[in-house]
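Students often ask what a holo structure prediction actually looks like on paper. The answer is less mysterious than it sounds. You provide the chain, you provide the ligand, and the output is a string of discrete structure tokens encoding the 3D arrangement of the protein together with NAP.
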Amino acid sequence: MEQRELVIVGAGPAGMTAAIYGRRAGLDVLLLERGLTGGQVNLTEEIENWPGAPRVSGADLGNAFRDHALSLEAEIRVAEVKKVELRGEVKAIVTDKGEVEAEAVILAMGAVYRSLGCVGEEERVGRGVSYCAVCDGPLYEGEEIAVVGGGNSAVEEAVYLTGFASKVYLVHRRDEFRADRAAVSRALSNPKIVPVWDSVVEKIDGDGVVEKILIKNVKTGKLSSLPVTGVFIFVGQAPANGAFKDLVKATEEGWVLTDENMETSVEGIFAAGDARFKRLRQIVTAAADGAAAAMGASAYIKEQLHLRSALLEPESVTAFFYSGADADQARLTDEAEKIAREKGRDLLIIDGYKNARMTRKLGVSPPSVIELRKGAVVRATPVASAADVAKTLG
Ligand code: NAP
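The corresponding structure tokens follow.
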């Protein structure tokens, strides 16, 4: 199986930032992407909240991320990841173009737009039902259309769609939008946008294509029909977690749980970007996640490589595990090194606080002297004083 240091799944802002940081940390980086690099930024016409660029097209920003990662010699490979799995300690990434083994993995697959689930929706996708304004907006020149949802996506895309459509009904289930104030005021001051409050879509109807939608006012229960030829649905997102659903801990909805280093419940597997459980899903937060995940992965890989070659691979090793967070243990370490020198013994010093993972894995509680044969602990002796160390080293 192909072996790589850092494999990143998904080339959106999170994945590409992780690739940039990973390469700058000196890692061998493979970035896997099934489609276009850039991820969801490609679906956004104009981005107004990427710091330093008051207005930038989504495609331009995505291309700039990709060029930056490529300039640092990250490898970007077009491949669809089917599964990320653990085989014992091995992290395996199964793709449609073969399998890759990684020292560390960053899951950055992002999120996908949710569907409404109403009658008539599924069968009219591509025939009037759309989840991408940039892709399909130009098809509705001079037509009347509806946008469903009340978040930033719905409100901003409704404004974008007024560039084509003659009228855009903005159908929202409450009487207040969730989107931020700037986006809302831009939408409500646009004469082509007609807000339809407190309403849900019951049915999308028409002869093959979309001709009208049936909506219900949730306060009055009244049903009415809107004559539209297109329905753009922006009712939130769901994590694109198909390839790693049962691998890492996640919320009930599937958003991946991580610590502040972006590490998941599985050591060496990190998550970054929209697939994570978090409050704010933005390009800037995805990029920040990517940076943190790459640095976490870099520390993990370096720790693993060092410990493997120094501790687990040699025929026989005697190691002194201490906690660097404890001043008394740090002093005892100096004494242990001195005793080992006097006795002509090789003693590997390991800070169990910094290398908590390996310390846990070996079942060591510092301060202890550990003897290993080919990676297996054959003797573990807790030590409390220089005399204990001297006795243990013989
Ligand atoms: P979102 O903020 O979660 O909003 C989803 C909207 O859909 C809500 O208004 C929700 O109504 C409505 N909704 C959910 N399920 C529904 C259903 N079954 N039927 C009808 N309506 C339903 O999702 P989003 O707009 O896709 O945005 C996702 C994230 O990306 C957010 O964090 C957003 O801020 C961010 N984003 C930011 C920008 C930007 O800053 N430029 C642009 C796009 C997206 P309720 O309000 O009643 O729950």
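Residues 49, 116, 148-154, 156, 173-174, 178, 200, 234-237, 280-282 surround NAP (CB under 6 Å).
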